[in-house]
Amino acid sequence: MGxxxxxxxxxxxxxxxxxxxxxxxxxxxxxTVIASKTAGVKKxxxxxxxxxxxxxxxxxxxxxxxxxxxxxxxxxxxxxNAAALNIARESIKNNKILAAICIAPIILGNAxxxxxxxxxxxxxxxxxxxxxxxAKGAKYTGKEIETDGRIITANGPEASKLFxxxxxxxxxx
Length: 173
Fold this sequence. Notes:
By secondary structure, the protein is of the alpha/beta class.
């Protein structure tokens, strides 16, 4: 297995959020594994492709030090996905680093693991996503990166490298 598991949507994941985060992790010596609904090649919203090596149904969080949900419009596929929600819950239960970027923090909120936690996410002009996080008990800060204990959230593609660095810092502590 690997040190970190990056979970991408079956389609329309945000390319930079995957590839920039992944490169920061790998440059720091961590082994990455990509997962999705099913194994196989997936296409990002900007046109890049990535190969998911494992399906969500086969993920054992104990095989990884960090579980990372990548954003993009396709991440909404996991908002109510039982396997994704269970992975988030199991990550916290097993004291893993749990990270999400862009709209993917909604997955963590829906899993019930953000109650009382400082978090951030990408938000639209109507504040749709920050409202969803607040409704699940999270404390939305609007920052570029937010770390609260072993939970790391970021607000979008521009924060991808900083997101990767925050995960590396957490893995090294």
